[in-house]
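Ticket #4471: structure output looks truncated?

Reporter: J.K.
Steps to reproduce: submitted the chain below (271 residues) through the standard prediction queue, then opened the result file.
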Amino acid sequence: MTPQNQHSSDLISFVQNQVLDDHFASLRYAGIIQKALMPDPEILKGFFKDSFVLFLPRDIVSGDFYYVLRIRQYLCIAAGDCTGHGVPGALLSILGISFLNDILQGRIDPKANRVLNMMREKIMKALHQTGEKAETKDSIDIGLCIADCDSGKLQYSGANRPLIMIRNGELTEFKPDKMTLGLAPLREQPFTNQIIETLPGDKFYLFSDGFADQFGELTDKKFKHKHLKRVISSVSEFKMAKQKDVLQSTFLEWKGNTQQIDDVLIFGFQL
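Returned output as attached by the reporter:
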């Protein structure tokens, strides 16, 4: 290679590396902004008796998001899973957080299913979705809880994302509606509202599908929802911080050296 060609090759490599550095720097900064829109796990200590957030983006930014807002005697808790991951998923997650704030900070008595109905309308309008085949298929799956701290009642409404409760060592799964936020279904139905009379010691878990859908290095099979429920049940007697550690190590051991295929989010809390 001539000195001139070598110089050109070095220059191209420098430019390519600089572009990559700028790209990752932009992603890292975007990740900081996205995390700033979600409550710091330390702040959550002021809302719950105990809690944890296992948040493992596949890329630097995430299509999963968690949300907590206190309004009068109500505590609003959500875990969302947006279409895709990386930058597209992160943009949709910011839209979801913004719509939750807009709806819940309005002068209404919070009803979990009403919030999801309103979110669906806002997302479909923002993405110009009318049900045509050529439209974007972006959407948000979400589990939303609204706890009345005065009465002890917990509302739950879900768009494709369930709620797990552990009470006295027994696991109960509250099923979501098989609908998403966005992507107008052929026959649009209102979301349902489930009311739970909470008891001291109850533990609740909202989560995305990233953990259950992860392929294992040794098995080349998905972790699966049933397996995740067994793990949550087995760690439920631990303090929330210990639960997070066990769940994270379980996920990393299962994944091994295989690629993480999606964002991972588990939000555990005790009222």
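Triage note (M.O.): checked the attachment and the full token line is present. The chain has five helices and ten strands.
Status: closed, working as intended.
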